[in-house]
Amino acid sequence: MILFRRLALAAVLLAFVVVVLGAWVRLSDAGLGCPDWPGCYGHLTVPSAPEHVENANAAYPERPLEAHKAWKEMIHRYCAGVLGLLVLALALLAWRRRGEPGQPLALPLALLALVVFQALLGMWTVTLQLKPLVVMAHLLGGLATLALLWWLNLGQQRWLPSAPADAGLRPWALLAFAAVVGQIALGGWTSANYAALACVDFPTCQAQWWPQMDFREAFVLWRGLGINYEYGVLEHPARVAIHVSHRLGALVVLLLVGWLAWRALRRGATPQVRRLGLVLALALALQLLLGVSNVLFALPLPVAVAHNGGAALLVLTLVTLNHILRARSEPCAPRP
Predict the structure, then answer these.
(1) Which residue of the set 73, 230, 235, 330 is catalytic?
(2) Is 73 a catalytic residue?
C-alpha cells in the first residue's frame, strides 16, 4: 500500500503540472507547434538538424517549424505521457492487490480509461486544428484527472475523522463544485475562441454594461471539419458574448463559493472544515484577482497561466471539502 500511495501522490503532482503546462501551451499559441501526433514533424523530438528541418517544412509547407513552439508542445506531451504511465501503474497495482482490505479498484481503472480518452482528445486537438469543443473537453478532462487522482489520495489518508457529517454543507459543497466546473468550461470556451481580450475594461465591457453581443454564434459547438481555429474564427460580437458569459459565471461562483467558504469558516462542525473554509476563501479571492488582472493588463502570459492553476486549486479544495463531508457520514474503512 505504501508504493500505491506514493505513486498516487506523484501522479497528483504531475497532473497539476500537466494542467498548467497545457495552459502554457495554449496561451502561448503553441497548440499546433507540432502539426502531427504523437511525434513532432515525424520525430520523437523536435527536429534540429538542418536536413530534418528542411524535410519537416517540406512535409508541412502550411506550417513551417517554429522550434520554440514545438518544444513547448512536446514538453507537455512528454509530461502527459509520464502521467499516463503512472496511472497505468496504479491500475495494475490495484488489480494485483484487489483482494486486500482498503485497496480501491474501480477508481484506478476509471482513471486509466480517462487518461486514454485524454490522449485521444490531445490527438484530436491537433488533428482537428484546435476545434474549441475539443480544446474545452481536453481542459475539463485534465482537471477531471487531477480531481479523481486527488480523491484517490484522500481515500488513502488516515487523518479523516469519522465524526457525524455537517449535513447542511454537503449539498452546497456539491453545488459549488458543479458551479466551478461550469465556470471552468466557460473559461475553456473563452480561451479556445480567443475571446479573453474581447473586453479590455472592467467591470464594464467596452465602456458599456451590456455591449453588442451575438449569443447565437458564440455557442455553436460544432462547425464541421476542415476549419483551422488558430486565433479564432468568430466575429467580435460573438467573442464579446463569450467573454461576458464568463464574467457572469464568475459572479455566480463568487456568490455561491463565497457563501460556502463563509459558512464553513464560521459554522463548520470541525476544525478541518473551518480550515478548508479559509483555504477556499483565499483560493477564490486569488482566482478573481487573477481574472481581473488578465483583463486590465491585456492577458500577460504568467497571469493567464496562473489563472488556470488557480482554477485547479479551487477544484482541489472543493474536492477535499466534499470528500471530508462524505467521509464523515460513514466510518473510516480500516487500512493496513
Answers:
(1) 73
(2) yes
